[in-house]
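**User:** Everyone, produce a chain:

**Assistant:**
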Amino acid sequence: MDLKTLTFIVVGATFALYIGIAIWSRAKSTGDFYVAGKGVHPVANGMATAADWMSAASFISMAGLIAFLGYGGSVFLMGWTGGYVLLAMLLAPYLRKFGKFTVPEFIGERYYSQGARIVAVICLITASITYVIGQMKGIGVAFSRFMEVDFSTGLFVGMSIVFIYAVLGGMKGITYTQIAQYCVLIFAYTIPAVFISLQLTGNPIPQLGLGSTMADGSGVYLLDKLDMIVTDLGFREYTTASNGNMLNMFLYTLSLMIGTAGLPHVIIRFFTVPKVRDARASAGWALVFIAILYTTAPAVGAMARLNLINTIQIGAVGSPTGNVDEENLPVWMGRWKETGLLDWEDKNGDGRIQFYDEKGLGDKAAAYGWTGNEMTKVDRDIMVLANPEIANLPNWVIALVAAGGIAAALSTAAGLLLAIASAISHDLLKGVFMKDISEKNELMAGRVAMAGAIVVAGYLGLNPPGFAAQVVALAFGLAASSIFPALMMGIFDKRANSSGAVAGMLAGLVSTLLYIFWFKGWFFFPGTAMAANIPENWIMGISPEAFGAVGAMINFIVAYAVSHNTAPPPEHIQHLVEDIRVPRGSGGASAH
């Protein structure tokens, strides 16, 4: 069976499964729509949380960034997984004990202010929409490849699928759909990694294959081989940091960590379990399920980079292979060229493709008659999906990877859209502007809000301000700078008041947005960055993706200063804060 037909069958079967689950578990009440009736088992919730969080950035883009950044890509591994430790220890059980539907609802009641609730909604929507843009990029990449169409067509098809099952099921449908999606994406990620690790090192465990010797009998370790190849072509050594700025790397990692702990669509998952203890258990199980993919990603990235270079330009410098004649090209390159995410140009007319770093190789390239890097476009987001094709794996493996990439993007997009819909229908309409709205109309408002969010995110996804993982990092920075400090101070500082919370959230959000817009341009007007997006122009070398940690510090400082220079919260709010932190059955809260 040809690849395209097989891919349609595999992906179509997974779609039928997702939509069937959504119909079977269709939300019939606002409790079902927002928190799945608070009846999800912690193991199931951990699996759903893992799928909710392991987005297109994790499945499609992270290994691609590691493939090109090398050691520098480790910020994603450390930041995203470390954030779950913070979430499990500092937020999840306390927010579940509070017992509300959404993050803005907690902030509104904890800070006894509708204004704080509205600001929290603004922060949530800003971070979530940015996050969905990254998912839409991943959806477009995956759909364009498996349907063999251009990126924009693939994006529109993916938007339609998200609309059908996310709008129908609400949290109840999304939870059970995400369990199925986790199974699909984890098999799709690990199976090709096992095949490729066996091919290159003879070791079937990718995590061990990364540190093993090559299977060709040379005795050379895989990473040493990769270092030799990339440096011969003028690129930076793979196993060294891609950016020597330690401050930026630290802030980048911190931003991803606290951004993870402040993500509304992840936090809302801990409202779906029956008991407070289950919230912490859910976070633990989620880490277990996430670790399977995250420990595999470095091996996938390194092996993808090695296979890419060996396919395009095999052997020592000066002996590249791969004819530009369309009939003699590797088949995978022709397929990906149709998506518009891969392209080349035979600049010197030698019928071959040169792939090297012009600055790094310098005059040495001229000795071979090379007149410039002929790989004019290699979108890093294609690496995981193209990896099994580059390695000539069986068609069923390639089809499975396409289904996994789509599952990853769809699962997170659905969770994000639900967070946005909940914020608009439950927090703004029900909580502020239309308190007497019926449950039926609130449910309808949530679905309309979700549909609107899909349209907005789809439009912005056509011109994303970076690769999927980079866009998601921006979203994490926005969550880190706006929501995380308000939650932390709401739980652990009974002196924090509404004025401090509002001032802090606005200061953190605005400062981070301005920094992003300054270096990335305005989302609605691509290419309008006010300064070149290069490290030399960043303030103290801090990248836009890392600035969320700085925004969080600004938030904490402003909130603390304002809170301690204005009236303290009412006494019942201070008792509420104490009560949230005391486990049930442990006695009364301390007065100190």
